[in-house]
């Protein structure tokens, strides 16, 4: 753990899921949200929402997202700062897809310090690049509740019906193509992978083999997250 304040449980637990596109960050963040009462803060979801609403940030982000680049630090940091200020985040957050650059990691430290909090654990989901194209190109989500699925690895139990909400509409992301995955992986290796060393140096890093099946990754995560949130393992 990085400081004494967080060890007392007096401040909000902060967890980071690091990993390339398709590593399983969103899938696992949703499970942690349910199991530990943490709030999933996905910058990808927040940016897609800004694009859909046609905000100024959304307009600036859209073209970059379409080609698989990284949206500017200023835009992303502002979106995260706003979201972290919402009262529900006091119960603890799981950051999914943020930070993605060293500038974002530095900004996060400042935002958390203002709240007397710090990063309790940065968990690196480690996967082979070769598996990512398959993970990304088979991904789809429920249009109503956002639950994630996969053509080969996680079909709904009843075909065409969402396990979570019973919805029957599903969608695929415009940027989930084989070409964009290559750009996104390149951005990951150039800009985001250095954060693994950054959190390792702080003693906050955990690594998980995310080539395992979804349920096995989930168990490995629970073993890390339970002590951090003070919750007992089920
Ligand atoms: P990320 O948020 O890191 O981009 P997702 O959680 O959206 O990744 O997962 C990408 C796709 O791979 C989804 O379709 C998901 O159902 C599937 N998936 C996630 N974790 C695993 C896993 N451990 N094994 C196989 N498929 C997985
Ligand atoms: P994935 O987990 O599959 O990489 P995300 O939903 O996290 O996808 O992100 C989708 C896109 O949104 C990224 O390719 C990037 O353009 C943008 N994005 C999301 N989070 C960030 C961030 N922290 N910094 C810069 N760009 C981001
Ligand atoms: Zn649903």
How would you describe this structure to a colleague?
The chain contains 10 helices and 8 strands. It is of the alpha/beta class. Strand 5 (139-142) and strand 6 (148-150) form a beta hairpin. The longest helix is centred in the last third of the chain and has 16 residues, at 214-229. It is globular and about 45 Å long. It binds adenosine-5'-diphosphate (2 copies) and zinc ion. Zinc ion (ZN) binds at residues 142, 144-145, 147, 162, 164-165, 167.
Summarize this, please?
The chain has 234 residues and is α/β, with parallel strands linked by helices.
Chart the SSEs and their pairings.
Layout: H1 4-7, E1 14-18, H2 25-36, E2 39-42, H3 43-53, H4 56-66, H5 73-84, E3 93-96, H6 102-113, E4 121-126, H7 129-137, E5 139-142, E6 148-150, E7 170-171, H8 178-192, H9 194-201, E8 205-209, H10 214-229
Parallel strand pairs: 1-3, 1-4, 2-3, 4-8
Antiparallel strand pairs: 5-6, 5-7
Helix pairs in contact: 2-10, 3-4, 5-6, 7-8
This protein binds adenosine-5'-diphosphate (2 copies) and zinc ion.
How much of the sequence is in beta strands? 5-15%
Weakly predicted, low-confidence segments: 1-9
The helix/strand order is: HEHEHHHEHEHEEEHHEH
Bound molecules: adenosine-5'-diphosphate, zinc ion
């Amino acid at each position: 753990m990085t400081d004494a304040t967080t060890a007392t449980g007096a401040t909000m637990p902060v967890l980071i899921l690091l990993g390339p596109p398709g590593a399983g960050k969103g899938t696992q963040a949703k499970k942690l949200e349910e199991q530990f009462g943490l709030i999933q803060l996905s910058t990808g979801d927040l940016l897609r929402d800004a694009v859909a609403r046609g905000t100024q940030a959304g307009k600036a982000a859209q073209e970059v997202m379409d080609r698989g680049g990284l949206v500017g630090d200023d835009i992303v940091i502002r979106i995260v700062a706003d979201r972290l200020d919402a009262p529900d985040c006091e119960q603890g957050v799981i950051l999914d897809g943020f930070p993605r650059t060293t500038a974002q990691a530095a900004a996060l430290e400042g935002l958390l310090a203002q709240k007397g909090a710090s990063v309790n654990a940065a968990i690196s989901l480690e996967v082979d690049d070769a598996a990512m194209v398959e993970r990304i190109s088979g991904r789809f989500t429920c249009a109503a509740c956002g639950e994630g699925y996969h053509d080969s690895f996680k079909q709904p139990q009843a075909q065409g019906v969402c396990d979570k909400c019973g919805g029957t509409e599903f969608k695929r992301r415009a940027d989930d193509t084989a070409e964009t995955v290559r750009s996104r992986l390149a951005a990951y290796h150039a800009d985001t992978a250095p954060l693994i060393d950054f959190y390792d140096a702080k003693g906050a890093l955990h690594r998980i083999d995310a080539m395992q099946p979804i349920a096995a990754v989930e168990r490995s995560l629970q073993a890390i997250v339970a002590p951090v949130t003070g919750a007992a393992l089920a």
